[in-house]
Amino acid sequence: MQSDMTMPLLAECASDLSKSLPRSQRDPVIGIIGSGDFSRSLAIRLVGCGFRVVVGSRQPSRVAKGVFPDRVEVRSQREAIHAAERVVFAAIHPEHYHSLVGLREMLAGKVLVDVSNATTLTSHKQSNAETLAELFPKSSVVKGFNVVSAWALQTGAHDGSRQVLICSNCSDSKAMVLELARRMGFSPVDLGSLCASRGIEEAPLILFPSWGGPILTTLILFIFFYGYIFLRHILLPYLDHRENNFYQLPLVTVNQTLPAVALVTLALVYLPGLVAAVFQLGRGTKYKRFPCWLDCWLCRRKQLGLLSFLCTALHAVYSMCLTLRKAAGYTLLNAAYHQVKAGIENSWVEQLVWRADLYLSCGILGFGVLTLLAITSLPSVGNALNWREFTFVQSGLGYAALALSTMHTLFFGWDFAFSPGAYPYYLPPAYLLALIPPCIVLVGRLFLAVPCLTLRLAKIRKGWESTQYWPVNNQEPGGSREAHPQQNFDDV
Ligand SMILES: Cc1cc2nc3c(=O)[nH]c(=O)nc-3n(C[C@H](O)[C@H](O)[C@H](O)COP(=O)(O)OP(=O)(O)OC[C@H]3O[C@@H](n4cnc5c(N)ncnc54)[C@H](O)[C@@H]3O)c2cc1C
Ligand SMILES: NC(=O)c1ccc[n+]([C@@H]2O[C@H](COP(=O)([O-])OP(=O)(O)OC[C@H]3O[C@@H](n4cnc5c(N)ncnc54)[C@H](OP(=O)(O)O)[C@@H]3O)[C@@H](O)[C@H]2O)c1
Ligand code: HEM
């Protein structure tokens, strides 16, 4: 097969003949086999980007007028392959690839772009692109464009992701398709050789791959807290003394569950960093891999953080609506009536006023800081920050948000926690349970701030290692630490 790069993609340089043609006649000719949805969208996009397109159909006469733009020619498969200068898209389903075998010689030397998706997530099956490459050994097969939908192709990559994943065993052909994708307004990503094609084909089938664990964790926490609050506030009082609190199920119980879940999830964002620090301190090195569960946990902190933010935002909205409820109105009226009957003129309790203002203020501040974290997690904002700024917001302000949220909950319930009435049926309030993980994290963080631990951790994170990891030939008699060159980190 001749070198692909010697054959230009642009028709202007393709032949002297093309130079004599009018502008539109000199645009590069791209072939597309198949006249379905993807073919139509691809043709519209290519024509819009200045290419000439010839669509190859098994029965061109059956393709209704107006399906393709006027500038697109619909011909037989043979004619389309013949007209295409270099690039031919196979826009048919992979189970029909074998029907093109008769055109093998015509496709020899051309770049055959496989745009198909996998139908199931089967890791042991040969990819469609590899099958196509086996069927057409004289063509160079490039995998690509399958991750964009027909819709995204038509709307000119303004809707949905602009990323196009591309791979091929022929680097020249791949470079050509990468350039084509760029000219079409997409952001091509080179994923190497054709063995990456299976992953590319399966990519559109995977649903939020990094969100499964965090969503499941949040869901389990929600079910646990909702069930616990239902048992403690609604079911047991009803069974015990027929107290009917079922009206609380849609709003009050949800507004107790959501913040508890938010607080625990937020603690779960900052706990793995501490566990990682304990591992590093214990081992005296950062070069030993963390256990898989910790690695996975560290990689899911962004998702956990965003889910915590979602629960907090919902809690804030629910809380604003608490006083709008009919139940709140009736409770207030009843309390006022009893107060009048009891002859109480002033029900102002200074301590309660302070407590409510303090817990609300801490909650609002905590929510504000969390919003900042959520904004910086947007790629467009995060990319504008340098590493130090991002760490300051995510780690520094993140801990501030955790501390404010914990204070909000403590101010809300600290005096209830010490009254025996807060433990009906020996069950502590849900917010007390929710306070355990953030308190562990905050105390752990304070503990790690002890100078001897902080300094040792900083040294380890800069590359210092405890003597047990020194290479044997570097070991000093008696294992003296002072002799190790990395001890210079002490001076840093
Ligand atoms: C609303 C919200 C949005 C968030 N958005 C993002 C986001 O966009 N991106 C993001 O990354 N996090 C995000 N998070 C999660 C969290 O804020 C960050 O992960 C934060 O950096 C954690 O800080 P930390 O101090 O616990 O740990 P870090 O400062 O990350 O880590 C402490 C130390 O642990 C070690 N360590 C950490 N990870 C690894 C690892 N994988 N392998 C080996 N060592 C490791 C390092 O030595 C590091 O110095 C978000 C959280 C929230 C609440
Ligand atoms: N639709 C999307 O959004 C999208 C997104 C990414 C990737 N893809 C991939 O693009 C390819 C085409 O998808 P599509 O949605 O365009 O499908 P489609 O609408 O069903 O079109 C497929 C075309 O294949 C041709 N064809 C049908 N049966 C055939 C057979 N027995 N032998 C040979 N050719 C046959 C037909 O064209 P003729 O009758 O003119 O020959 C038909 O129009 C698939 O591999 C799909 O995975 C599609
Ligand atoms: C705009 C911000 C916030 C507002 C307006 C707000 C408001 C409230 C209100 C009114 C209550 C009392 C609810 C009741 O009487 O049942 C409450 C409780 C609580 N809040 Fe918030 N809050 C905010 C942010 C937060 C944040 C950021 C967290 C933690 C991530 C949080 C966690 C809690 C918890 C755990 C409770 C106790 C729930 C219970 O068991 O009743 N709040 N909040």
From TrEMBL:
One of its GO terms (biological process) is iron ion transport. It is a multi-pass membrane protein. It comes from the Eukaryota. The keyword Transport applies. One of its GO terms (cellular component) is endosome membrane. The chain crosses the membrane at residues 215-238, 258-279, 358-378, 390-411, 431-453. PANTHER family: DUDULIN-RELATED, METALLOREDUCTASE STEAP3. This is Metalloreductase STEAP3-like. The gene is STEAP3.
